[in-house]
Amino acid sequence: MTARVGVVTFPGTLDDRDTQRAVRVAGAEAVPLWHRDKDLQQVDAVVLPGGFSYGDYLRAGAISRFSPVMETIIEQAKAGMPVLGICNGFQVLTESHLLPGAMLRNDHLHFVCRDQKLRVETSATAWTSQYADGQEISIPLKNIDGRYTAAERVLDELEAEGRVVFRYLDGNPNGSLRDIAGISNAAGNVVGLMPHPEHAVEPLIGTGRTDGLGFFTSVLKKLVSA
Amino acid sequence: MTLDAVRHLDTVTHAAETPEAGQPWKELGLKEDEYARIREILGRRPTGAELAMYSVMWSEHCSYKSSKVHLKQFGEKAPQTDALLVGIGENAGVVDVGQGYAVTFKIESHNHPSYIEPYQGAATGVGGIVRDILAMGARPVAVMDPLRFGAADHPDTRRVLPGIVSGVGGYGNCLGLPNIGGEVVFDPCYQGNPLVNALCVGVMKHEDIHLAQASGPGNKVILYGARTGGDGIGGVSVLASETFDATGPSRRPAVQVGDPFQEKLLIECTLEIFREQLVAGIQDLGGAGLSCATSELASAGSGGMRVELDTVPLRDATLSPEEILMSESQERMCAIVEPDKVERFLAICEKWDVIATVIGEVTEGSQLEIFWHGEQIVDVPPRSVAHDGPTYHRPYARPQWQDALQADDAGKLPRPGTSAELREQVLKLVGSPNQASKAWVTDQYDRFVQGNTVLAQPEDSGMIRIDEETDLGVAIATDGNGRFAKLDPYTGAQLALAEAYRNVAASGAKPLAISDCLNFGSPEDPAVMWQFAEATRGLADGCLQLGTPVTGGNVSLYNQTGDVAIHPTPVVAVLGVIDDVNRRTPMAFKDEGHLIYLLGDTREEFGGSAWSQVVHDHLGGLPPAVDLDRERLLGEILISASRDGMIDAAHDLSDGGLVQAVTESCLRGGHGARLVVPDGLDAFTFLFSESAGRAVVAVPRSEELRFTDMCGARGLPAARIGVIDGDEIDVQGEFSIPLGELRAAHEGTIPALLA
Amino acid sequence: MARVVVDVMLKPEILDPQGQAVQRALPRLGFDGISDVRQGKRFELEVEGPVDDAALARIREMAETFLANTVIEDFAVKVES
Amino acid sequence: MARVVVDVMLKPEILDPQGQAVQRALPRLGFDGISDVRQGKRFELEVEGPVDDAALARIREMAETFLANTVIEDFAVKVES
Ligand SMILES: Nc1ncnc2c1ncn2[C@@H]1O[C@H](COP(=O)(O)OP(=O)(O)O)[C@@H](O)[C@H]1O
Ligand SMILES: [Mg+2]
Q1: Rounded to two decimals, what is the model's pTM?
Q2: ipTM score assigned to the predicted complex
Q3: Nearest alpha carbon, ligand 1 atom 16
Q4: Which residues contact residue D57 at a Cβ distance below 8 angstroms, ignoring those fewer than 6 apart?
Q5: Assembly state and interactors (chains C, D) (predicted)?
Q6: Which of B62, B88, B133 to mutate to test the pocket of ligand 1 (most atoms within 8 A of CB)?
């Protein structure tokens, strides 16, 4: 039986179809989830894809966080279900307090779209087990509200607990504190990051690299072995 | 001017009874004979609402009254082709790209609003063209944005450029449409008239093509999307007042605020409606709003339509009927739906949080009838509004100064005397604002979204995969060169066409069809009208020769400050198809040892060149000669070479000439090049000439023989000019420049200007 | 040092997508009884020297030419007490 | 119908590049003497019914949970006179 990975569509979500494709390329079944449905259709994991849900009006992720589907996802995430938030999905996760901190306008105030080098700081999460600790990867980055911020105390705690999952290399693209590109919750099942692994799963498309595929094969491995 | 709310409602009956009532036709921009013609059509004076409709629909913007006698040639001279499924006249043309797929694309301008409010002007420009594409039944899959600004170092450019760029990005990024290309050009002639052209391309299956027509009496007219507000109402303030002062009221600039989130919902909602085959006809609301949508839908159908204007959802309850008819509120669509499908239609809209309202129905008759609080305020033959607008044969004449301009030969400009000077001019060229890297702009656009982007800026063309199974794809490039067109508008238009064609072919795709945006000054100036006539003639002749029909486009006139018009700026978008995107040809030189070939003939051609601008601030002489048969041959060679794996990089030569192209390919690939000036050419001409019909390619040594044999057999000059090697560009016997130095010059300019 | 606040709001006839999005979300969050929401910008300026009529006139000019685009926005200048 | 205004500003310790960009541009435009600029959001809420303590308490809750993200922002609620 193949693993079922849910991909949520909020109004204004953009990368849902790409994320479904990435899930399929990795060999799992992609299950579309609709923001108004509380029912997660027995999926084994959930991805909150990128985009501008509700236009990013008010704050990125602020309105989506209150959708019916998030009620169940918050509950399930706390119970250990793997959840990945990419870009806008990461913003939804911080607004939902599943992950600490907040996202601010990039320090240079512009939308930035580029191929971004990252270091995978830890393979000890549901979404990074297929990478080596310290492995360097390049995947697309594209956002305007990507500056990660949190209180010093929270940052220290994240570092101490090994919950900084990705760090920007070769230049911080948005002013994120401590070059943080992605973090996890304490249990390691909930991961959020700004760059887009789903855009780096096919050699021909985008940057021509497949460095993002490991996210999806990682969760698949975990689900199959579970 | 405030609206007089208690003003008497001008019904059709009232209009018939008060033939002598004065009307503000002049203030609304109508000419006396146009007003007389409206009275003749109706057999009475128009009501206020009718006058509103005619005045916007008969405006230059909507009726093409100055340009249509010239645009006719695009139909008359159209090349024979099976590729065109829907031609000029619909929201956008549709091209058959094989495997059951059809592609629709169109380019439009949003120049004037973008100067007044750069962010919103550009944003709503993107929004408008996306709805045109959607209305054809297609899923929009990419956008492009050819932009032109005043001098790079002018203080106002700092306001206009960042605003426009973030508007294009803010809207397109939020919609989830990859931006795969465009242009950024600086020239003082665009100082008070920046050009914001926007292109959208969409994909559908043949059977999904939808047309803007209202037929089938009893079918419902559904308005859906955003509520209607009081924004962007051109001349309505005139109508709303009873008295007019001598000078006439000032025209309020028609600036609207876009809501890309609403548009994203509109796209998804509309695509779901298409999937369930719920519409009989559909039209987007753009310029002239409901006036345009209702009259065009009715006119293209059986004619009869009845609309209850009270039912239109409003953002502002105080709007008058005239204002509702003329409002250009964004993010709205109008659909014709069979009665038994209405319920499902509304349910899908509800799912996507899109407001949808039945505002009327198709009727047996042939009149467009609009009611307000039960009273009839419009009763017109829709065709007379939508299609029978005035046509002008405006006088045109070759300007007096044209001869002097052409006589001012750029070939006589002082050329670099030493190798050191040559080197210096190369650096100056690749670092000049027009030739510098545009990454500062394009990095603000999402080029990855939708996961089908094969090539995007700075590649020669943008390429999108449209079928994941077969890897079928399309490529598009847009080009225009106002300097060339100023020197000779006929040739300039053909050079724009040739360049876009060459760009598409360089990436390995076969050019199929074009769309164009014609940006010119005032049609009331005979010199401008001559430029327009020459450019359209050049384009039509060029398309016939290249076999690429014009599928649609847009005209933007009155781009001028005082008496000074912009350079005539025809912008051409060429669409090509590639049956397997795996064999696309990128521009990067990335394999050391591969041979660099220059294809085509290099002549001493510097009129309008980047070199003449950058080094001498000069514009004069004749633009490069055009040979479209040669362009076609070059295209065929580039496509064959890509299909047979004979080349692994290609880059077309255009502004800046060979040295610019080689620099870009080297920087993109991270490798240098050793170049040798071919026999018969001097180094200066070799590096800077802008002869058309040329490209550079990288050929693996193993393929060299096969490649040169092919070129020889087909009669295309191919000169081996060097090899990919090292980390500098070295021109033998002249100079060498490290890539780092080139990169600093090329990439540092725009950020420094805008910092 | 005094603080001057410049509030910039979209003109009433201009669409305010942000305000609308907020308003539409409120009932879902259990907040009723808000019939309209408009969202604008607030600039807090720290002014060196006295905030006299001349200074206020300059700030008004700044708001008019730079902080707001009066084609679509209105602004208000207030001295923070 | 009464209007309640909610002002939302970034906390003082959080970098405000938008405000900084405005401040940096001012001298170029000929406006001197502004030592700091912060940019925030202003929400104008039209409240149905009376704006009594209960209503204000609800609006404060709305600001706290929704209009502002208190990880990074402070807010102030005011009844418009
Ligand atoms: N420069 C042009 N070349 C070819 N067709 C044009 C050109 N300008 C306008 N058209 C065609 O004229 C028709 C009306 O144009 P337009 O008013 O821009 O369309 P829409 O109402 O969809 O915005 C369209 O079919 C358009 O493609
Ligand atoms: Mg249209």
Answers
A1: 0.94
A2: 0.91
A3: B554
A4: none
A5: Part of the FGAM synthase complex composed of 1 PurL, 1 PurQ and 2 PurS subunits.
A6: B88
